Amino acid sequence: MKAITLFFAFLGCCITCIASVDFNQDIRPLLASKCYACHGPDEEGRKAKLRLDIREDALENDIIVPGVVEDSEFHYRIRSDDPDEIMPPPESHASLTKEEKDLLDQWIAEGAEYAKHWAFEPPQASTTLVNAAKWGNNPIDAFILKNLEKNGLDPSAPADPYALVRRLYLDLIGLPPTPEQTDRFVKDDRVDAYERLVDQLMASSHYGEKWAREWLDLARYADTNGYEKDRPREIWQYRDWVIRALNEDMPYDQFTIEQLAGDMLPGATQDQKIATGFHRNTQLNEEGGIDPLEYRFYAAVDRVATTGTVWMGLTTGCAQCHTHKYDPITHDEYFGIMALLDNVEEPDLLLYTDGQLKRKAEVEKQIEEKIQELMGRHHDFDQTFQAWKTSLQKEATAWNILQPTAWKTNLPNLESMEDGSLFASGDFTKRDVYDLNFTTKEPITALRIETMTDERLPDLGPGRSYYEGRKGLFFLSEIDVLLNDGQEVEIQKPVASNGHGADKTIDKEGSSGWSAGVGEEQHIILPLAEPIPANQSFSLSLLFERHFVASLGRFRISATSASNRPKVQKLGAKIEDLLATKKDLNSDDLQLLKSTYLEKVFYSKKNVQAFDGHAKWIWDDKNNKIKQTLYFTKTIDLKKKPRSARLVYTCDDESEFFINGKKVASNSLWYEPVSVNVSSHFKEGNNILSVKATNNGGPGALIAQLEIISAEGKRQSHVTDQSWKFSEQEPEGNDWKTKGLSDGQESTIAGKAGDAPWKNIPLKSNELSELHALRKQLPNNRRSLVMQERPADNPRPTYLRHRGEYTSPKHEVHPKIPEILLSKNTKMPTNRLEFARWLVSQDNPIGDRVTVNRAWRSLFGFGLIRTSGDFGTQAPAPDHPELLDWLAVGFRKQGMSLKKLHRQIVTSATYKQSSTASPELLEKDPQNRLLARGPRLRLSGELIRDHMLHASGKLSSKMYGPGVYPPQPKTVLSHAFGNQAWNVSKGEDRFRRSVYTFIKRTAPFAGFMTFDGTSGENCLAKRDRSNTPLQALTLLNDEMYVELAREAGKLVHQTSKDPVNELFRRFLTRPPSEEESKVLQDYLEQQIDRLQKGQLKPVDVTNDSKADAIWAGKVLLARAIMNLDESITKP
Amino acid sequence: MITNPLLHRTRRHFFEDCGIGLGKIALASMLAKESFGAMGNPGFMRFPTKAKRVIFLFMAGAPSQLELFDNKPKLAEIEGKPIPPSVIKGQRYAFIQPDAAVLGPRFPFAKHGQSGAELSDRLPYLSKIADDLTFIKSMKTDHFNHAPAQLFMSTGSGIPGRASMGSWLSYGIGSEADDLPGFVVLQSNGVLSGGSALWGSGFLPSEHQGIPFRQGADPILHVSNPKGIDRTAQRQTLDLLNKLNRNSLNRMGDPEINARIEAYEMAYRMQARAPELMDFAQESQETLDLYGVKKGKSDFASNCLLARRLAERGTRFIQLYHAGWDAHNDVEGNVKNQAKLVDQASAALVQDLKRRGMLDDTLVVWGGEFGRTPMVEASAALNRSGGRDHHPQAFTMWMAGGGIKPGITLGQTDELGFHVTEDPVHVHDLQATILQLLGIDHTQLSFRFQGLDFRLTGVEQHHAVKKLIA
């Protein structure tokens, strides 16, 4: 328990003497803060079995005797001198003041009436005041005026038009007006000029950007995961959704429902799913070795607290550990709210825009056509395909998919898919076990496990890893096969199509195992030492153990009876199955087989025979002579004997190829290049390549490419070109083959590889890359973190946790909302969607009040109730309870439009008052709770930056997209784990609105944090407005602001004759007074003088070598003006 | 300069949150000076103030107590055998299985000083001042992963976003410095798992967050003038700002304007103070040698010296993080290297404070976020051998000065160093003790956020350790 005497001491100076006590206003806060900790709702903490929060209980045993103070034990106990008797006990440090004791006695004397806490009663719009327009034009003003009069205060005069236009611009769109916009408003003498401006600003797309930032504080939005690794996450689509929704003025109930349960709406759109990112903004600990479910629980705790703050105005957090000591929310009810929110999977939603989907279909079609075309280009394709297929069919193993008859896991949920595979969802741990039972009709000699991808898995899977390790990874540690009598079946040398550690899956060592690529489908084959006999039941047990979650997300089991030891099929299990099938293949299957062959086999074979485009067709000249034979040589010098060498060559029409006199190849069909391994034919020093080539008719030419891997592993290529020497006569003896033709003629280039008439010769650089180029055109999908309701057959049970600790689960708790919030007609929500609907329904007595109070706080700096997130019994009574209720009722009546709500407030006379604080006002109402003057508040860090960007003419109008990186000192990130660089954005991204700045939780943007920004770790209902020297240093010296001062100085230097006036108005909106002009002019001249004298250097000040002293002086002037209190303040 | 007492009172964030507790009246860490002087004794200042400031040498990554402080010959005896199941029941570990084999201590131990404190031969410098130190061999924590455990030690909670100890102090008792931050963070040997949340102010007003000093010329962000602007220009600019801001103050009457003027003046003073603070040329060669400071090198030794200089200049809480203790692999090599980096300077800091008469009111705390397992960590898949995993059940820290009883060892662990057997000190107990040495009742210093009254030491019953307090 904590003393809060000061608060009441303060109340004393605001709330004048009370005629008759009001339980809600006067008594409950006292009882709640001083008594309920021991005599309140919490049974566990209750002392002396006395409960003071319920009247019947308090009246028992004459503790309180209504109307008779002297008979009430309560009266004596609060006034006792005996330290053993006095309440609250001295050790609680919660002692009552004399005034408080008097108040409590007065309450007993007046009958000790209780009332339901005001916030738990639905708001009622008072009608008595609404028409009493003595002041202002808006019912808001009537409520405010009533309170002012009660306290003997008058409202202030209206703000001058300059202050008003600046206030309105900053509040509605978060940017200052330009001097032109200001003048337009100031000169506009139409009666509704102000309302017109309000409408105009509401229609601006900057409206959404400004208000989104405030909502993102509540949503604890950030672009990284938090904790140690703090890796980036993709959820900016959610941020953009908020901006769009606010700009479209989406009704607040819809706005809420989509964020909490958009995925559960019938026919949920992609946008509605993106909206559920709201509760995915929780942090994710990616540290190796954590217990992932423990951190999932912390996220669930955060979601309850955030939901409570944003929509219920209740600080549910208290009830995490025990029954709420002040508010009637039980420990059990707390977990009831968690159960409403927690029945979720947390996938990354794969996103395509409509345009992308269209483009994707187009490109896929083009790929299909390209494959057809490529097959058609090669006269030998069908023939070689058939040959390949036939040869592989012979050795293909026939695998039969095994459907498990039953399964069991430690925790994950397995679901049988149509294709015989199993899909794993739900919760995963660092050590998951899948036990699958089978019965086989055929004997089994080997088993096969296919790992499969799925859009629902992290990065497509096949694994379930979502932190620490790469997303989508799996790690299969151990495989056990047991017969139903418990006898173990020995697995002999498992082999996998890819990856590492297949053999480690049977080593009885959990820390080693098999893992293969992400986004790939691979398989592992488990040959059995002894076949499992027919008609036998057996089990297959898979263990996934790593220091992070690494279980398989989708997989399929097959078996074979083949007597041969099966081989892995590198082209994949699916191809193996197509090859092994005895049935006729349908056209799709055949097409798959053909296209796989084309890409993976045909070209890989052809690849070695193919030229890369550098090789040239050479001959004696471009004329063709029939039956001409030419003799070519080329000498190459090798420093060492090469590691390997491969020759690809062909000749139109036939030829023989020699290396150092030894024949290594010959060809007879020009369109089928020869590829030979010639590694053994080379030696250190000079090597002679020689070719005898004959043209039988038509064009004649030779082409060759020699790929050498040197002893050091370097690749070098030698190709036919004009440097090859030739002779038309056969040189005598075999000398030319070993010594070369040093006196031969230079060759003529007849064309390069790929040219007509030889273009049918396959080229690496062409055909496959045509296909690959097309694949690259497939649009990149985006992802966004979303919520997804768990399948009906696998709900997540929620347990009450003793003391709120993850490691102490007790009984299961079913979804429910706290009883105190239920009205007679409320249908108890049973799931997230119903809960979301209830939160924004009329049945939630607090919700609308929270929303209007938040809007009020944004505009006035303080809410009508000060504790924005807390409407519970311990919260102080609202400053203006009737106004709060009137606004809440009106908000619902007007269709829950935030724009209408904002409009209503900013058009009030209350809002339009001057913010000048006279000494009298400061004395009577230092915090401006009664609103006898307008709001005057420092801007947030983000708005300060936006303001400076706009005023210096640099603000980019680009909206949406991934986070950007404005300049900040490198050292800000030096403290972040992994030392990721802050790669400062280039071009206009450097000058985007601050809502688009990338938010790194462990190293948030320094320029915002210094001004009380948030790193998105907690739901933040209210920002501080501190005033520190670090803020001064930032505005004076931060490169980001110095740059903008330079830009502003340069701009006015180029465009304005009156720099003082122009700069002043850009940053402060109003024109300077005569005195201010003079002081600033003096400063400008003082600085120019120093610059001219060389005491300061224009180039250093402006960072521009063309700058002179006058220009630089204006930069210094801009910097000074930016640092004025008024420049960062809403007037 | 505050002239109008009315302005003085109202400019605080004092009333902004009703019912948030007395600490709100504490001034911003950087604006505050002995902040409770004016307000009388707040409710949480319930103990005699023994320490005025704290230097916390945080050994991030968690050093092995079994290689430094807690000698367990039994481990050598049964090396290679598993820990008995009765001991390891219900324990959770980050990487290993609890039944992994035992690893004996890698270094010999010996007794030192009159207190007979047992230390390994890796700590020759600390051994020499053993009688000035107070060892707690019975530390316990709730978390077994780095980020949460570092956060727990620094903020009392494993979840990022709570207020750090330095922030609590800044909020509660302000700073003694008027030209330097009241809560400074120094780092060496790599980055931290807990990140900037370790010195965040959480729900407390953000002016109470720790100010990380940065490498290079600008220890405080933007403390140097931008290129092209000299001190004269800065002064002239401030004069201009003051004049115009004062005009506004007269016109608008908003006390925040006054605070702004003060903040700018303090920023200007800070600009002058920072280079002076960083100037080690003022130190004698003997002092530099005592710490092992090498010219131009920024490391743990130079941070220790800087910590002393900050303490002299009134900084309330100086948090030094030294990373690199996470010995999953080759604990022997890790301790050998790390001890070389910290032993001398840690001892030098205590000695230096002592000879300057500052040790009496400066509390030095040394330790990591948890301990390390008696069991070996070895994994082929992770290429690890001869390491020790995270061990939250028992570890050692030491303290010196600031009202702590010197030359004693508190607490015991079992013969395997697995569990605490005597005088357990939970992290929250340690935090309560530190607060008490500063005069604060940890149960009374609280702040309301999201409806909870948050305290550094959480909601469970925890106590300052009386046996430790002189």
Determine the strand fraction of chain A and express it as a percent band.
5-15%
Main beta sheet of chain A: 7 strands, antiparallel
Low-confidence stretches of chain A: 1-18
Count of helix runs of chain B: 13
Q: Approximately how much helix is present in the residues of chain A? A: 25-40%
Structural class of chain B: alpha/beta
Describe this protein's structure.
With 1131 residues, chain A is α+β, with helices and mostly antiparallel strands. Helix content of chain A is 35%, strand content 15%. Chain A is built from 36 helices and 32 strands. In chain A, helix 32 (1039-1055) crosses helix 36 (1109-1122). The two termini of chain A are 40 Å apart. With 470 residues, chain B is of the alpha/beta class. Chain B has helices at 5-10, 65-68, 73-77, 85-88, 124-128, 146-155, 165-173, 231-252, 255-278, 285-291, 300-312, 331-355, 427-437; strands at residues 53-59, 109-112, 117-120, 133-140, 183-188, 211-212, 317-322, 362-367, 371-379, 384-391, 395-401, 409-410, 412-413, 420-422, 425-426, 446-449, 452-455. In chain B, strands 1, 4, 5, 6, 7, 8, 11, 12 and 15 form a nine-stranded mixed beta sheet that branches. Chain B has a two-stranded antiparallel ribbon with strand order 2-3. Chain B has a two-stranded antiparallel ribbon with strand order 9-10. In chain B, a hairpin with a 4-residue loop joins strand 9 and strand 10 (384-391). In chain B, helix 8 (231-252) packs antiparallel against helix 9 and helix 11 packs parallel to helix 12 (331-355). The longest helix of chain B has 25 residues, at 331-355. The two termini of chain B are 40 Å apart. Classes of the chains: A alpha+beta (1131), B alpha/beta (470).
Helix-strand layout with pairing:
The complex is a heterodimer of chains A (1131) and B (470).
Chain A: H1 5-14, H2 23-34, H3 36-39, H4 55-59, H5 73-79, H6 98-109, H7 139-150, H8 161-172, H9 179-187, H10 193-203, H11 206-218, H12 236-247, H13 252-261, H14 270-275, H15 292-312, H16 331-341, E1 344-345, E2 348-351, H17 354-377, H18 381-395, E3 400-401, E4 406-409, E5 413-416, E6 422-425, E7 431-440, E8 444-451, E9 478-483, E10 488-489, E11 495-496, E12 523-532, E13 536-545, E14 554-560, H19 573-580, H20 587-609, E15 616-619, E16 628-638, E17 644-652, E18 654-659, E19 662-667, E20 674-677, E21 685-695, E22 701-709, E23 715-719, E24 725-727, H21 735-739, E25 745-746, E26 748-752, H22 767-776, E27 782-785, E28 788-789, E29 798-801, E30 809-813, H23 832-839, H24 847-860, H25 881-893, H26 898-906, H27 909-912, H28 919-924, E31 937-938, H29 941-951, H30 1006-1009, H31 1029-1037, H32 1039-1055, H33 1059-1068, H34 1074-1092, H35 1098-1102, H36 1109-1122, E32 1129-1130
Antiparallel strand pairs in A: 1-28, 2-27, 3-14, 4-7, 5-6, 6-14, 7-13, 8-12, 8-14, 9-10, 9-13, 11-12, 15-26, 16-21, 16-24, 17-20, 17-22, 18-19, 18-21, 22-23, 24-25, 29-30, 31-32
Helix pairs in contact in A: 2-6, 8-10, 11-12, 13-23, 15-16, 17-22, 18-20, 24-25, 24-26, 29-32, 31-32, 32-36, 33-36, 34-36
Chain B: H1 5-10, E1 53-59, H2 65-68, H3 73-77, H4 85-88, E2 109-112, E3 117-120, H5 124-128, E4 133-140, H6 146-155, H7 165-173, E5 183-188, E6 211-212, H8 231-252, H9 255-278, H10 285-291, H11 300-312, E7 317-322, H12 331-355, E8 362-367, E9 371-379, E10 384-391, E11 395-401, E12 409-410, E13 412-413, E14 420-422, E15 425-426, H13 427-437, E16 446-449, E17 452-455
Parallel strand pairs in B: 1-7, 1-8, 4-12, 4-15, 5-6, 5-7
Antiparallel strand pairs in B: 2-3, 4-11, 8-11, 9-10, 13-14, 16-17
Helix pairs in contact in B: 8-9, 11-12
